[in-house]
Amino acid sequence: MFPSFCPSVPAYFAPNYLLFTLHACCLACGSIGDCMTLKKILLVEDDPLGVELALAALEESRLADQVAVVKDGVEAMNYLARKGVYASRGDGEPVVVLLDLKMPRMDGLQLLERVRSDERFRTLPVVMLSSSREETDKKRSYELGANAYVVKPVDFDEFKSTVRRIGRFWAEVNEPPPGMCRRN
Questions:
Q1: pLDDT of 63-88, one tens digit each?
Q2: Which candidate in 112, 137, 162, 177 could, as Cys together with 144 as Cys, close a disulfide (CB 3.0–4.6 Å)?
Q3: Distance of CA 65 to CAs 28, 30, 58, 100, Å?
Q4: What is the rounded CA–CA span in Å between residue 24 and residue 156?
């Protein structure tokens, strides 16, 4: 199920959380070690294939040191708020949240609304990554404060390319809000 570059990845839905360390080189100098700045991406996606493709794209591009994967909005909120199994997660917030729209328990719009209403996460960059082209979904996402809305391509290679471009912008080009993950 998961890409061959990480044989130690546990089953996707047990323990319902995956912190995937990419062992990526430092984006600034190309070497592992002293100058590395930890970059986290939070991927909120309930489809195992979508997770696999996104992880593959991010690994190939070496855009993040860690990708935290959760399967719905409830888990994402717990991750961000450091509650439950996420109470001991490391310091710092993700450089971006890649958020699926349609998920069980708490969907992407509900999570986005909760994130934007919480002072701690109000400026956290959130990119909606959805298969929906519905104008109402796009409009509502932007009304709730999404930083971008990207329609997932159906084609495997196009999907990977899209995720790479999103990751590249948020991990390399964009300057994070003050107090979030910092770049060298």
A1: 667 899 999 999 999 999 999 999 99
A2: 112
A3: 13, 13, 9, 21
A4: 23
